């Protein structure tokens, strides 16, 4: 990754942190309709919370898996908006930086950077801890990324819109970002774990069920280019 790219990533992350600290465009239930009309599409360098069909939100934290890769764990968390649920939308690995505010087109390839820990949403050929599907982790940093961080945005229409279902397809393995209520961390399958009560997030081959469906919830949104 070039020095220019690294500087651009750091600058974008700083903008997101500033927006979060000072209110910015972080949506909430009382103003969701207003934000939806003002920011109807997901744009590059926006930081979004992804709401699973189960009602849980994609989440990460500085807690490593005790099995598999041992990398930073990714789960789905129940409840209201949380800063550790924010993932910032970036260009694909080794692709030019796309201007902030550019709409994310359906079918495009992006990376999702966990804002709180600055690591990339990642997958690879390790077993997930509960279901033994494909593990999803957060890994790397602004200067360390690879194609295992690339996700294809699968949606209908021209652009990724906030009110529509989206599937995130891991490009290297052609698998779908998924979660399931029955795959919850508990005292029974993870004694003493700090992530008990959260759902396992994993990648699966099948795209045909609700477990692969996500929507964009709260976030810090860059205004679409030209508006």
UniProtKB/TrEMBL annotation:
<dbReference type="Pfam" id="PF02815">
    <property type="entry name" value="MIR"/>
</dbReference>
<dbReference type="InterPro" id="IPR036300">
    <property type="entry name" value="MIR_dom_sf"/>
</dbReference>
<feature type="domain" description="MIR">
    <location>
        <begin position="101"/>
        <end position="156"/>
    </location>
</feature>
<keyword id="KW-0496">Mitochondrion</keyword>
<feature type="signal peptide">
    <location>
        <begin position="1"/>
        <end position="27"/>
    </location>
</feature>
<feature type="domain" description="MIR">
    <location>
        <begin position="157"/>
        <end position="219"/>
    </location>
</feature>
<dbReference type="InterPro" id="IPR016093">
    <property type="entry name" value="MIR_motif"/>
</dbReference>
<keyword id="KW-0677">Repeat</keyword>
<keyword id="KW-0732">Signal</keyword>
<protein>
    <recommendedName>
        <fullName>MIR domain-containing protein</fullName>
    </recommendedName>
</protein>
